[in-house]
Amino acid sequence: MNKIKNALYKFMYGRYGTDTLSKVMLWTYAGVLILYSVLRIVFMFALKDTPIASTILSVCYIVISAVLVVWMFFRMFSRNIAKRRRENERFCGFFKLRRNMFRDRKTHVYRKCPQCKAVLRLPKAKGKHTVVCPRCKNRFEVKG
């Protein structure tokens, strides 16, 4: 058993492995599997099981699950660690920004700079205001 473990460690050396995005893909795959199973039971007992509906459901499940599994394993075995890390940071950053936007909804407003597309957190205020982007120093107006 120790020999297999060492061989696996040796194989994974220099590869990306798992991260938050991989775990989300795994849970999504599990959700798709459960949804497919429930729909198969519904088609079997509640509705008349037509061959066309059954075939369409099966093909959709196969395609979605295959894409998720291939993408997940591609990311796990990738040697381009910097690119996979950036993908994971973008994925996690999207949800972190949404959480912050929800938390600050009463006191702040989020706007994108029209030039560099940076997301700016601005205090809520009525009327038109001129804003300077800290990244590109672009001046633009924001309605409050």
What's the number of helices? 4
**Number of discrete domains:** 2
Largest sheet: 2 strands, antiparallel
Strand content: 5-15%
Order of helices and strands: HHHHEEEE
* Average residue pLDDT: 90
Could you estimate the helical fraction of the residues in percent? 55-70%
Q: Structural class, from helix and strand content? A: alpha+beta
- Globular, elongated, flat, extended or rod-shaped: what is the shape? flat
Evaluate the radius of gyration.
23 Å
For the secondary structure, the number of strands is: 4
What topology, given as strand order, has the largest sheet?
A: 1-2
Low-confidence segments, ≥5 residues, pLDDT <50? none
Distance between the termini: 65 Å
Tell me what you see in this structure.
The chain is of the alpha+beta class and 144 residues long. The chain folds into two domains: 2-99, no CATH class; 108-143, no CATH class. It has helices at residues 2-12, 20-46, 51-77, 81-103, and strands at residues 108-112, 119-123, 128-132, 139-143. Helix 2 packs antiparallel against helix 3 (51-77). It is flat, with a radius of gyration of 23 Å. The mean pLDDT is 90.
